[in-house]
TrEMBL record:
Lineage: Eukaryota, Metazoa, Ecdysozoa, Arthropoda, Hexapoda
Pfam family, one: Serpin
GO cellular component assignments: extracellular space
Protein name: Serpin domain-containing protein
Serpin domain residues: 41-395
Species assigned in the record: Nezara viridula
PROSITE patterns: SERPIN
Keywords: Protease inhibitor, Serine protease inhibitor, Signal
SUPFAM superfamilies linked to this entry: Serpins (SSF56574)
Family: Belongs to the serpin family.
Keyword Metal-binding: no
Length: 401
């Protein structure tokens, strides 16, 4: 079995997941972890692209979506909540956010995780009960609402928001909003910045890093700097049902760890049938044992448009003219863009990762036009009873005026 861990035999991609709070006593934290991890897995499944590296920060987006949920109503709120895996007005989750964000104030010399959110609105935006909204968002999410001049000075507004994201990702995400993201129709922009830095509990010795082949497919391979960690004891499992290996690499701060899953027969085949429940069960099954680990040194930087992924997950109304954000404003707005830029660097000493997420809301478009200039069906009802039914296929040769 150990032969599979020799870098010569690594012939599949790696799934890499950061899990915090491996063991928690508080029920609200347990529930928070479950809904957060389910959302993360579902988002990954919908957003990942075949044959492309992926890096996402689900928690960075999740924070923004839950803030958005606070201003949503009706079907809009129900769909967002369903995507987030919890009820629309779940005080347990809100209090868990509060505790989660307050706990981030702790920082040691070897591990750092921080995240922040901000809401920018146009200076003419009529926020209903703005003081109450500010108090509510500050209480649970530590976020503020600030006004910008989107309509008269969109570029300056975009530059200021990008500067905020850059500052809150320690310079890793320089330009979250591309040019043209803000225009005269923009009413609100929600952003978050997230940073993780962690030193391995057991560092890879640079002397053990050698150039090896990484097998992308059976017929394609590339050279990588393969780090080696030998002679150690880690939580590890080889699972015959799913034909994969799983190992846990701890960071110095005991709450943080990296889980690596290496399928025997390719990642695409595993992902096709693998569920969140499978993932959770495997992670809970790993046991400490002697194992040698070989991991490529790598860096990934990725920009992702999240709109289609969220629509596939069931968040549809928020993007449509039927969007209802009446808890936030009387203005007629809908979500127009959801984006994220993220990066990760994995080296012998540890890991560095950052993400900036953004949601823009714009004034709804004019109602669609239905121009009956081609054959159509028509029906006349009395109550639920059809009285007449017909179709109009072509007009007469002569037009009566």
């Amino acid at each position: 079995m150990m032969a599979f861990l020799n870098p010569t035999f690594i012939s599949a991609y790696l799934i890499i997941l950061l899990f915090g709070c491996a063991e928690s006593e508080a029920p609200n934290i347990l529930k928070f972890n479950e809904v957060t991890n389910k959302f993360a897995w579902n988002l990954y499944k919908e957003v990942k692209q075949p044959s492309e590296n992926t890096i996402l920060s689900p928690i960075s987006l999740q924070l923004l979506l839950d803030i958005l949920l606070q201003g949503a109503n009706g079907t809009t709120a129900a769909e967002i909540a369903r995507v987030l895996q919890h009820e629309a007005d779940d005080k347990t989750i809100l209090n868990a956010y509060k505790n989660f964000l307050e706990d981030l104030d702790h920082k040691d010399k070897t591990t750092e995780f921080k995240t922040a959110t901000a809401i920018a609105v146009d200076q003419s935006f009529p926020l209903s009960e703005v003081d109450r909204m500010n108090q509510h968002l500050n209480q649970y999410f530590k976020t503020d609402i600030k006004k910008y001049d989107f309509k008269e000075n969109p570029k300056n507004s975009s530059d200021m928001i990008n500067a905020w994201v850059k500052d809150h990702t320690e310079g890793e995400i320089e330009t979250l909003l591309p040019e043209g993201s803000i225009d005269s129709s923009t009413e609100m922009v929600m952003v978050s910045g997230t940073v993780f830095k962690g030193e391995w509990k057991h560092k890879f010795n640079k002397k053990n890093t050698v150039v090896e082949r990484f097998h992308i497919t059976r017929n394609e391979s590339r050279s990588v700097n393969m780090m080696g960690l030998t002679g150690g004891r880690f939580r590890y499992l080889w699972n015959s049902d799913h034909e994969l290996q799983i190992v846990e690499l701890p960071y110095k701060e005991k709450e943080f760890r990296m889980i690596i899953i290496l399928p025997d027969n390719g990642l695409a085949e595993l992902e096709r049938k693998f569920t969140y429940e499978d993932l959770s069960e495997l992670i809970n099954s790993i046991k400490e044992t002697s194992v040698d680990v070989f991991l490529p040194r790598f860096k990934i930087k990725k920009s992702v448009d999240l709109v289609n992924g969220l629509k596939k997950m069931g968040m549809l109304t928020a993007f449509s003219r039927y969007a209802d954000f009446s808890k936030m404003t009387n203005s007629s707005i809908s979500v127009s863009k959801v984006m994220q830029k993220a990066m990760i660097v994995v080296k012998e000493k540890g890991t560095r990762a950052a993400a900036g997420s953004g949601i823009t809301l714009t004034a709804k478009a004019l109602p669609p036009q239905m121009v009956c200039n081609s054959p159509f069906l028509y029906i006349i009802f009395k109550g639920d009873t059809i009285l007449f039914i017909g179709s109009f296929l072509k007009p007469p040769h002569k037009i009566n005026r």
